[in-house]
């Protein structure tokens, strides 16, 4: 949308972090903290001017519905139990790291995570079939295959999902990543 000189790339990056923190954090860092991060390479006025430029160029359009937001909505509608919610979150984070999943819509990824959670845990999917919020199973198959392939890689040595696995081993996430899954179940899910 706008060319920027190389000497302002750090200003662009730090200002983007400022905008993101104002948007997401309850207590965002102050402008002086971001100036400190740049080793005083920029002034408060330059940061504010860049913030205005960025927001103007994107027309203040900062919201993009993520798969996590869709999961939160589906969770309420389907009355997902807490453990199922965390299993789905685990799957969503795996999808974030898998390039092959990036072309699926956020709502499809969220719906597929719910479907996969139900299938992996031998839960009755009739409640999913009776709602209009989720996709038809045939629509989920490409996303499902992608997500299953990513989950299968979790135990490969040196895989890119190590941090996610560690995160979901914690008590606060109900130790979801420590659950054992029968590898044979994947082929039955697709069929």
Set out the fold topology:
Layout: H1 9-24, H2 31-37, H3 44-57, H4 67-78, H5 82-97, H6 106-120, H7 126-129, H8 137-152, H9 162-167, H10 185-190
Helix pairs in contact: 1-2, 1-3, 4-5, 4-6, 5-6, 6-8
Alpha-carbon distance between the two ends: 46 Å
Order of helices and strands: HHHHHHHHHH
List the total number of helices: 10
**Radius of gyration of CA atoms, rounded to a whole number:** 21 Å
Structure explained in plain terms:
The protein has 191 residues and is mainly α. It is built from 10 helices and no strands. The longest helix is centred in the N-terminal third of the chain and has 16 residues, at 9-24. The mean pLDDT is 90.
Short structural description:
The chain is mostly helical and about 190 residues long. The protein is built from ten helices and no strands. Helix 6 crosses helix 8.
Defining traits:
mainly alpha; elongated; 191 residues
């Amino acid at each position: 949308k706008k060319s920027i000189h190389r000497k302002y790339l750090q200003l662009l990056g730090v200002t983007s972090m400022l905008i993101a923190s104002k948007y997401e954090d309850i207590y965002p860092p102050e402008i002086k903290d971001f100036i400190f991060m740049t080793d005083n390479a920029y002034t408060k006025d330059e940061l504010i001017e860049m913030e205005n430029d960025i927001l103007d160029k994107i027309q203040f359009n900062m919201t993009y519905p993520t798969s996590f937001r869709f999961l939160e909505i589906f969770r309420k509608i389907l009355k997902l139990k807490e453990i199922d919610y965390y299993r789905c979150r685990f799957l969503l984070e795996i999808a974030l790291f898998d390039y092959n999943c990036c072309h699926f819509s956020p709502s499809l990824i969220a719906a597929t995570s719910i479907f996969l959670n139900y299938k992996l845990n031998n839960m009755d999917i009739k409640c999913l079939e009776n709602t209009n919020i989720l996709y038809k199973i045939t629509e989920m198959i490409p996303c499902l295959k992608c997500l299953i392939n990513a989950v299968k890689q979790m135990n490969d040595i040196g895989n890119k999902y190590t941090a996610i696995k560690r995160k979901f081993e914690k008590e606060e996430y109900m130790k979801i990543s420590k659950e054992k899954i029968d590898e044979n179940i994947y082929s039955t899910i697709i069929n």
